[in-house]
């Protein structure tokens, strides 16, 4: 596949456990090593690779996905996409501490390559949004801001919604509950502390001064109950504690030309993202 983007695949050693990791970096076409640039780090969705997150998404997507192509050069910024670092599953990291520490380590990795950044943002879709929130919650002073699409804010609640058959049949039939248990180390009853460590909702007090935009959908059938158990609920909790917090939300369900909100359209609500909208917002804060 041909890209006009200035892409580099970077190998680095994890700051968490010294394992070999991989990072996809997108630079402006006229990149100069003596300049500094804004940096956006984008963890990928569940089961994707960093290249899929950058380009056209996973093969079975129903919703068109534009990815990050062309945005580094258009907005003169650096985009860094980690491959993922799970406890068990590389592409199903689900906010594991190794992944979060790698995300925070990325500016140092880039610095060693003479890629200099002056401010750091986070942005992600679905699991990538979850890891964006978790990293912001654990390191609130490290990032200038974040932008999420259809994120998991509470992993235990998502697991419960899956095993209670509240999500789309496509997700349930994929045995995703087994993958979650393998990656996390058990069910929420088995290891509640690990589910808490991976969920931004347990770092709520650290969002008092965080610049954050939350795109969510009441029609999402993959991360369901966003209004009562996930990202919109997370937003409401922040604002109830910190009314002046620079946290904003938008229900994007009404932005689509969907009418029936049948099974396919509800999956498409979950798969929706617009990273260019995110870039414009992030660079304004």
State the helix count: 11
* Poorly predicted spans: none
The averaged pLDDT comes out at 96
CATH topology type: Rossmann fold
CATH class: Alpha Beta
Helix content range: 25-40%
Q: Name the shape in a single word.
A: globular
Number of strands: 8
Based on secondary structure, the structural category is alpha/beta
Overall tally of domains: 1
Spatial arrangement of strands, main beta sheet:
1-2-4-3-5-6-7-8
Whole-number radius of gyration? 18 Å
Portion in strands: 15-25%
Describe it.
By secondary structure, the chain is α/β, with parallel strands linked by helices. The protein has a single domain (6-283), classed as Alpha/Beta hydrolase fold, catalytic domain (Rossmann fold, 3-Layer(aba) Sandwich), CATH 3.40.50.1820. It contains 11 helices and 8 strands. It has an 8-stranded mixed sheet with strand order 1-2-4-3-5-6-7-8, with helices on both faces. Strand 7, helix 9 (231-241) and strand 8 (247-251) form a beta-alpha-beta unit. Helix 3 packs across helix 4. The longest helix has 16 residues, at 97-112. The protein is globular. 46% of the residues are buried. The mean pLDDT is 96.
What's the arrangement of secondary structure elements?
Layout: E1 6-13, E2 20-27, E3 36-41, H1 50-54, H2 71-75, E4 78-82, H3 97-112, E5 116-125, H4 127-138, E6 145-149, H5 155-163, H6 169-173, H7 176-184, H8 192-197, E7 211-216, H9 231-241, E8 247-251, H10 263-271, H11 275-283
Parallel strand pairs: 3-4, 3-5, 5-6, 6-7, 7-8
Antiparallel strand pairs: 1-2, 2-4
């Amino acid at each position: 596949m041909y890209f006009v983007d200035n892409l580099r695949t970077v190998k680095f050693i994890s700051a968490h456990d010294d394992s070999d990791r991989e990072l996809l970096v997108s630079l402006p076409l006229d990149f100069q090593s003596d300049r500094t640039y804004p940096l956006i780090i984008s963890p990928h969705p569940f089961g994707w690779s960093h290249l899929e997150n950058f380009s056209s998404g996973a093969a079975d997507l129903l919703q068109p996905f534009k990815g990050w192509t062309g945005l580094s050069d258009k907005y003169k910024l650096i985009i860094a996409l980690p491959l993922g670092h799970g406890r068990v599953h590389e592409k199903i990291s689900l906010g594991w501490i190794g992944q979060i520490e790698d995300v925070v380590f990325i500016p140092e990795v880039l610095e060693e390559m003479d890629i200099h950044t002056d401010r750091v943002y986070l942005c992600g879709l679905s699991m990538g949004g979850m890891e964006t929130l978790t990293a912001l919650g654990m390191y609130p002073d490290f990032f200038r801001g974040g932008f999420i699409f259809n994120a998991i804010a509470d992993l235990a609640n998502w697991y419960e919604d899956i095993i209670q058959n509240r999500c789309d049949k496509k997700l349930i039939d994929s045995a995703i509950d087994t993958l979650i248990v393998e990656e996390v180390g058990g069910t929420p009853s088995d290891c509640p502390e690990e589910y808490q460590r991976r969920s931004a909702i347990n770092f709520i007090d650290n969002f008092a001064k965080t610049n954050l935009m939350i795109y969510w959908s009441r029609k999402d059938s993959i991360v369901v109950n966003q209004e009562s158990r996930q990202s919109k609920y997370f937003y409401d909790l922040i604002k109830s504690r910190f009314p002046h917090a620079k946290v904003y939300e938008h229900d994007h369900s009404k932005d689509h030309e969907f009418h029936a909100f049948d099974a396919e359209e509800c999956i498409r609500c979950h798969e929706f993202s617009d990273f260019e909208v995110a870039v414009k917002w992030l660079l304004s804060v």
